[in-house]
Amino acid sequence: MLKIEHIGIAVKDIESSNALFAKLFGEPHYKTEAVESEGVKTSFFKVGPNKIELLEGTNENSPITKFIEKKGEGIHHIAFDVADINAEINRLKNEGFVVLNEIPKKGADNKLVVFLHPKGTNGVLVELCQEIKD
Ligand SMILES: CC[C@@H](C(=O)O)C(=O)SCCNC(=O)CCNC(=O)[C@H](O)C(C)(C)COP(=O)(O)OP(=O)(O)OC[C@H]1O[C@@H](n2cnc3c(N)ncnc32)[C@H](O)[C@@H]1OP(=O)(O)O
Ligand SMILES: [Co+2]
Asked: Kind of enzyme, top EC level (predicted)?
């Protein structure tokens, strides 16, 4: 893995959270994007070299809606940049991790993404990201 790509934070209301995190970071979010396949609206903040992704669920089956129902708002996942997502899937499967989607899917911010089940990673939902090159 190359570096932390972003930290995902589950929020109930992205509009009010955008205002809150803009106050915290001293900079507004730079981008919003809906990802319908995940049932989420997202917004992104830059903090130095790091990236924070806020996520609001848009339907009752969204992983974000279900997470907030069970655990409340807070850190939902940590995403790591990888150079070759298919090679990482194979490597991690061979190491015994549970890959939730073996075919990478289109995430936000021009990335292919894959998730590992949090039960196999000490309760942390891990996302792998590979930039989509045109
Ligand atoms: C915007 C796109 C993309 C990006 O480009 O960055 C994203 O970030 S999308 C983010 C949203 N999408 C996902 O989270 C997809 C991957 N997640 C899943 O497939 C599911 O959420 C899950 C992890 C498999 C859980 O689903 P499910 O089993 O249906 O839900 P439960 O509510 O029953 O939870 C089971 C179990 O897992 C615990 N859990 C759920 N989410 C998390 C989490 N984020 N971190 C840690 N633990 C989590 C949940 O608490 C349950 O535990 P127990 O109650 O102890 O069984
Ligand atoms: Co994410």
From this structure: isomerase
* pLDDT tens, position by position, 4-55: 999 999 999 999 999 999 999 999 999 999 999 999 999 999 999 999 999 9
- What residues are neighbours of ligand 2 (ion), with CB under 5 Å? 8, 53, 79, 127
Neighbours of 119 (CB within 10 A): 9
Residue 75: enclosing H or E segment and its boundaries? strand 74-81
- Model's pTM, two decimal places? 0.97
- Cα 49 to middle of ligand 2, angstroms: 16
What CA–CA distance (Å, rounded) separates 18 from 48?
17
Per the structure, the complete domain to which residue 112 belongs is given by 3-131
Query: Closest-lying ligand to the alpha carbon of 69?
Result: 1
- Domain total of the chain: 1
